[in-house]
Amino acid sequence: MSADGTREQTVRLVEQASGRIATLAVARMDERLAWFRTLPPDQRSWVSLVAQAGIASFVEWLRGPDDVLRLTGEVFAAAPRAMARSVSLQQTVELIRETIDVAEVELPGLADADERPKIREDLLRFSREIAFAAARVYAKAAESRGQWDARLEALVIDGLVRGASISGDPLSQLAALGWRSTGPVTALVGTASESNTEDALTAVHTTARGLGLDAIAGVYGGRLVIVLGNIGDPLGAAAHFIGAFADGAVVVGPRAEDVSEASAVTRAALAGLRAVPGWVGAPRPVSSEALLPERALDGDLEARQQLVDHIYVPLAKSGDVLLDTLTTFLSTGGALESTARAMFVHANTVRYRLRRIAEVCGESPMEPRGMYTLQIALTFGRLGDLS
Q1: Rounded to whole angstroms, how far apart are CA atoms 277 and 376?
Q2: How many Å is the maximal CA-CA distance in the chain?
């Protein structure tokens, strides 16, 4: 028989044995790979289809390996895209190895002695191309998933900025973005870099993973918005992300108990970013709560209410003495002795009352920033009393 005839006979024998070899390969996987035994039946059937397609493509390879990409690509086309999410690349490599091991044992015996070295060589080359094809499939899946994640992340950030709350089961809604935390959240906002947006977003996620935090981030109207989960101290966490922002203010929202309040803390941080120019020399980063006076003057009704509820109301409930002392102290420009003379009390009495004011509302009238905040809070509190 001629060489061509011998080759064609070998190809026919391999083709006839392809079903049996694929079955043996799947049985070997079941025997040697513990994770394979735990796969659901539908996913096991996908693997069987891939093994059969692999042997069929090898038959075509033996007839003439003219279109390497098409032949090896057809192997993984036999399984749905979902397989790339269910079976990792490392596991796919294990499946290929088990199939090739079976083929190396079974296929040479189907050929004449002269053809056996050629069959082994062809199988070696084909297995290399199959490995490359698997890498291409997973690279394409990763690229598509990355693009989808970026779009989904941008939509979530857009919703938070516009005030759409994350209702229902927030973890199920954010699971596609890798969000795991059920703990406290905060938001960071600042000016986005004009030239390195993608690099900044990548840096945010890399930093968050290094700190053990969950993070979603996006650019909205020239502002970089970052929502962090599993945080303890918002300002402390924010210090690690400053480099992702362009020059200018970075405002940190309050600490909320869970992700369902992510929209509220994002809007608070954005309100702080709008108002921060009113505070010359504001720290970077700065808390949105530290910017309550500027936010209230900028028309933020929520900030105005917080000033009234957290400062004016507690002082009013503590009696007229503290309010009168604070009013007099502010009217004298923070002069201790002048306040004491105006109220006909000793200076030490004024000092005691000022300390009590700080204890009651958390703002010290002895500090310039505290004095300013108290002045704004008293103004809005009295306006509210008149309404």
Answers
A1: 17
A2: 125
Number of neighbours of residue 84 by Cβ within 10 angstroms: 20
pLDDT at 167 over 90: no
In order of their start, the domains of the chain are 3-143 (no CATH), 170-288 (3.30.70.2730), 301-386 (1.10.10.2840)
* Packed helices 68-77 and 116-162: angle between N→C axes, nearest 10 degrees: 60
376 closest CA partner among 276, 317, 298: 298
Residue 272 main-chain phi, psi, to 5 deg: -65, -40
Q: Residue 189, SS3?
A: strand
Q: Angle 312-316-319 (CA atoms, 0-180°, nearest 5)?
A: 150
Residue 48's pLDDT is what?
A: 76
Residues 6 or more apart whose CB falls under 8 angstroms from that of 44 comprise: 26, 36
User: How far is residue 139's CA from residue 143's CA, in Å, rounded to a whole number?
Assistant: 6
Strands 250-252 and 185-191 turn out to be antiparallel
pLDDT band at 203, cuts 50/70/90? confident
- Whole-prediction pTM value? 0.62
One-letter amino acid at 44 equals: R
DSSP 311: I
* pLDDT tens figures, 284-341: 999 999 999 999 999 999 999 999 999 999 999 998 999 999 999 999 999 999 999 9
DSSP-assigned letter for residue 260: G
Q: How far is CA 23 from CA 26, 199, 229, in A?
A: 5, 47, 48
Mean predicted confidence (pLDDT) in 188-200: 83
Predicted local distance difference test score (pLDDT) of residue 341 = 93
Q: Are strands 214-220 and 286-287 parallel, antiparallel or unpaired?
A: unpaired
Phi, psi of 307 (to 5 degrees): -60, -45
